[in-house]
Amino acid sequence: MCSPQVVEYRSAPLSEFSIAVNNPFDAPEASVGGPPRRIDVGPPTSLTIAGIVGRMWQHTREQPATILGTAFALSAAQLVLLIPALLVPWVLQQHWLGANPTVVITIHWAVMAAMSTAFLFVSLGATRIFLNIVSGRASAVSLIFTQGESWVPAAIASVIAGVLVLLGALMMVVPGFILGIALQFFPFIIVEKRRGPLDALARSSELTDGYKMQLIPITLFVVVGGLLANLVMGPAWLAVGVPIILLGQAVVYRSLWERHAYNALIKAEA
Description:
This protein is mostly helical and 270 residues long. The chain has one domain (5-269). 69% of the residues lie in helices and 1% in strands. Strands 1-2 form a two-stranded parallel sheet. Helix 4 runs antiparallel to helix 5. The longest helix has 34 residues, at 101-134.
């Protein structure tokens, strides 16, 4: 019989949180076999603005260079991708004098969609970096180019989520907003658990089940904070606002996973 194992909750790697229950939120590297073992953990991070911001600050102090480097890489990628998105319509208008305005607009939006899709690849790499940071693992800016296999599932999931949120918004503002909260973590699930688009969306909704009301003020805080940063800082907000939003989402995602794992552990030992 295995002796009890005590783990420091906040700093232990995810593999240390494998528990002898059927927990769908176990990380993929966590053990699912072997003899049962008991792990004593503390309560999860509080799902409040103060709790989330406090943990974000803790991780920022632990790996400041990686976070700043990721912020720079995201900003550079965004600015580089904006160049063709702005240049192509200008070239069409200046040198294609007989162009139909409808054609110009169509090409412009097609280029914008292509640039957004390309930026998705970089943002998935940033998602991997921030997942490592909030999981207590070493991370590096070079990981920003390692999520090619996640790109297609994430692109499909983005389209599906966007359509669902739009339909919800057309029906009523609240359903669309709640759908956005429920589906927002699909990139993290695709990157961390290698799930397909539909499974990732379903698991994101499952992950937020029972916590949506607590997530509303946190989500509003992140969205409003991002908008204010955009208004105050202009283009420079890419170097601060986008990484802060991604880090905040990663902290909330990990906190939700910890809550499900912790609740499953308590239920198993009750």
